Amino acid sequence: MTNSATTTSPSADPVKFAYWVPNVSGGLVISKVEQRTSWDFDYNRKLAQIAEQSGFEYALSQIRFTAGYGAEFQHEPVTFSQALLSETKKLKVIAALLPGPWNPAVAAKQIATINNLYGGRIAINVVSGWFRGEFAAIGEPWLDHDERYRRSEEFIRALRGIWSEDNFTFRGDFYRFNNYNLKPKPIDPQPEIFQGGSSRAARDMASRVSDWYFTNGNTPEEIRKQVDDIRAKAAANGHSVKVGVNAFAIARETESEARSVLAKIIEQADPDAVKAFGHEVKNAGKAAPEGEGNWAKSTFEDLVQYNDGFRSNLIGTPQQIAERIIALKTAGADLILLGFLHFQEEVEYFGRHVIPLVRELEAAQPLADAAE
Ligand SMILES: Cc1cc2nc3c(=O)[nH]c(=O)nc-3n(C[C@H](O)[C@H](O)[C@H](O)COP(=O)(O)O)c2cc1C
Description:
Elements: H1 5-8, E1 16-20, H2 41-53, E2 58-60, H3 77-86, E3 92-97, H4 104-117, E4 122-126, H5 132-137, H6 145-164, E5 168-171, E6 176-180, E7 193-196, H7 200-209, E8 212-215, H8 220-236, E9 242-248, E10 250-251, H9 255-267, H10 271-280, H11 300-303, E11 315-316, H12 318-330, E12 335-339, H13 343-364, H14 367-370
Parallel strand pairs: 1-2, 1-12, 2-3, 3-4, 4-7, 7-8, 8-9, 9-12, 10-11
Antiparallel strand pairs: 5-6
Helix pairs in contact: 2-13, 4-6, 6-7, 7-8, 12-13
The structure holds flavin mononucleotide.
């Protein structure tokens, strides 16, 4: 991995904010702690409207086909994302797609139509799969870790080709297209392509084909390592990729209040479910040949939040959180993806108390200093 200041310079753009759409039940922590969050549409409609008024630019929906570790009910993300677009004015909604169940012909057509209907506000998150039991339940073959990424890369190449070329012809190992003409094609802005995962295969794929790389929560030092690796590889490929980092935010008036909320979440964690989740995710990052992917180093406490969101440490007062967001930005994050315990009220609080401080710190911090 390289470690030059040029590869780690933070973006001159303001850091962007996204929130996890609770389109599956049980919230974002595997805990019996009270969560004033619902997966139903009335709740989500209001949440999306609050979010777009609070400075959130994106919402990310999730794909789950079966229950696992608390997520007993799961709404389908493309349909759900479209419903959210129809209830909002400027929010961009990122729909999760899982190659295998989705093939690129259907996905390209679905997303192109939604893009046309909603002025280009739809984006996608290509996920590669970690939940073997889910694949078994729906009769999908389970590929090895790096094969899953090889398929995802072809999936993305196929989407880009279908969306941009007439008479698209593609000869892949997973997908074939023959003089295919999609009409209508997406209008500008074209759908942005996000991807989730942190293994070497994930980083390599991002550096070749994705617009955005989403990774699990982590410290600025660990994020910087991933960013350096991706940016160096992307530069060699003549590609550029932006980085989104997951975090579970607990913003309270005092640090001790925020810490005690975290302690309660952990205390009331469901140990069997957390352990079962920990066992299952071995099929993801730990199964990567180099063992570096998501969850490869997660502790019990980390696993209580599905995507290691406590590790980003956005837990404390608005000022502390704003400073830590700047540290993540300095490490190369272009976007912070946020989960909350009580989504509606906390998205509103975050927009009112944290985002303005982030903007102040960004304005006060010359980029040259930020890059050090
Ligand atoms: C921000 C983010 C969102 C994700 N969303 C989903 C999802 O909705 N459904 C899913 O099955 N996997 C999801 N994943 C899992 C990844 O696609 C991937 O399978 C997992 O991170 C393991 O990949 P790795 O071995 O490259 O780290 C997500 C990952 C991240 C970082």
